[in-house]
Automatic annotation (TrEMBL):
The keyword ATP-binding does not apply. The lineage of its organism: Bacteria, Bacillati, Actinomycetota, Actinomycetes, Propionibacteriales. Pfam families: AMP-binding, AMP-binding_C. It comes from the Bacteria. InterPro entries: AMP-bd_C (IPR025110), AMP-bd_C_sf (IPR045851), AMP-dep_synth/lig_dom (IPR000873), ANL_N_sf (IPR042099). This is Acyl-CoA synthetase (AMP-forming)/AMP-acid ligase II. The keyword Calcium does not apply. Residues 342-413 form the AMP-binding enzyme C-terminal domain. Residues 102-266 form the AMP-dependent synthetase/ligase domain. Keywords: Ligase. Belongs to the ATP-dependent AMP-binding enzyme family.
Length: 418
């Protein structure tokens, strides 16, 4: 996975790009002035982020792109001390803080910041080649881009448009998230990728507007994917292909499931490597998912411990959450917060749920939950949900405290804290 300079002949140069309400192409995006290299380009809008990507694709600049809000002052100092010039992009204008350390440029290198969900964000090295995991010829599509610039999921959609013909983009800014179905319908979006929280929030706000978007491909990722959200999307879009993807900055896109079911088949575990298909090797050590992926970040060869917890249910392997937060010990009996969450969200009136441990006398910990209800499905009390869970879970797994929220919480990464 050696970083290298790209050709200036970009297959996707003539693909449409809708950003800030303007319809452009990759070729007609505003051009950034020649960037120093390495450069950390901090942006506040999708147009500047795409301009930075095209600059990298043409010139091979060693690049990290992220939103200004994700990179605090301490991290900017850290980047400068690691050899990055920090560029604040603002259309045709930009400010540059020179790097504090001079080092040899890794031409063609792309750096991603991890989500920081388990601590301070880390830098993971890639190239456009390693980020481009969709290589086969695709049918013409227009893709929605709701993700925060610079995240792995954002790069996955961007590289499709950059390296494939007839793959347009409609970029959604944070201020447009509440009304994105109207924008998507206006511009003929046929493919959209988002987290389960993103899809739940859209259904919760306005499922009627969502149903008017002519979606043919729906993709979920970034969080554990449960059966309830897959079924809701299948009901809204019976003709669409619905896929979920397990991907991370460290191992790339490693699991892709198209059968409409949560989890992946047990038969996928411990298969022999297949260099031709670039199929990752999946395994489980204890309760932890382990992946050896050809799409890994720089220096991350071999088996990678993901930190994600799995449960075996019938012939499926379900990814339930992070190892350090998913398991709740109730008086010596252990239950998966993710599985309890799935039970809650299988209730017809529940639009979203978060399950966590809470201190309790005698048993040390008990199961608690926060829930957002669908207002169109009648009144539901905490007692109703406790009874629902009692019929489906062992006694120690039933939530004993349930708090109702008015809205589904969502972070800049389109994830909720689950």
């Amino acid at each position: 996975m050696t970083a290298q300079r790209r050709s200036t002949a970009l297959i996707g140069d003539d693909n449409s790009v809708v950003v800030g309400g303007k319809k452009l192409t990759w070729r007609t995006l505003h051009k950034l002035p020649q960037l120093p290299s390495p450069a950390a380009v901090l942006v506040d809008n999708g147009a500047d982020a795409l301009a930075a990507v095209r600059h990298h694709a043409v010139h091979g600049t060693e690049l990290l792109v992220a939103t200004s809000s994700r990179v605090d002052l301490a991290m900017r100092e850290e980047l400068g001390e690691s050899g990055f010039a920090v560029v604040i992009a603002n259309g045709d204008e930009h400010s540059v803080t020179p790097a504090r350390l001079k080092r040899v440029e890794e031409s063609g290198r792309v750096w991603l910041l991890t989500s920081g969900s388990t601590g301070r964000p880390k830098r993971i090295g890639h190239t456009l080649e390693s980020l481009t995991t969709v290589r086969g010829k695709q049918q013409p599509r227009t893709w929605l881009v709701p993700y925060s610039p610079g995240t792995y999921a954002w790069w996955q959609v961007i590289t499709i448009s950059l390296t494939q013909a007839d793959q347009g983009l409609v970029v959604i800014e944070p201020s447009e998230l509440e009304t994105w179905p109207r924008i998507a319908a206006e511009h003929g979006v046929t493919a959209a990728s988002g987290t389960p929280t993103f899809w739940r929030q859209t259904i919760f706000r306005d499922s009627e507007a969502l149903s008017k978007v002519p979606l043919e491909q729906i993709t979920l990722g970034g969080e554990p994917v449960d059966q309830a959200i897959l079924d809701q999307l299948a009901e809204l879009f019976p003709g669409a292909r619905i896929s979920w993807i397990y991907a991370s900055s460290e191992v790339g896109a490693s699991i892709v499931v198209h059968d409409g079911k949560a989890g992946f088949p047990k038969a996928w575990l411990d298969r022999d490597p297949d260099p031709e298909s670039e199929r990752p090797v999946l395994s489980v050590d204890g309760d932890e998912l382990v992946i050896a992926s050809p799409h890994h970040g720089a220096g991350l060869e071999g088996a990678h411990r993901t930190g994600d917890r799995v449960e075996f249910v019938d012939d499926r392997v379900l990814i339930t959450g992070r190892l350090d937060t998913d398991e709740i010990n109730v008086g010596g009996s252990k239950v998966s917060a993710g599985l309890v969450r799935n039970v809650l969200m299988a209730h017809p009136a529940v639009a979203w749920a978060r399950v966590f441990a809470r201190k309790a006398p005698l048993v040390g910990r008990m199961v608690a939950a926060e829930v957002v209800l669908n207002p169109d499905l009648g009144p539901v009390t905490d007692a109703d949900l406790v009874q629902w869970c009692t019929n489906r879970l062992p006694d120690y797994g039933v939530p004993r405290r349930i708090r109702f929220l008015a809205e589904i919480p969502q972070k800049e990464t389109l994830k909720s804290d689950v």
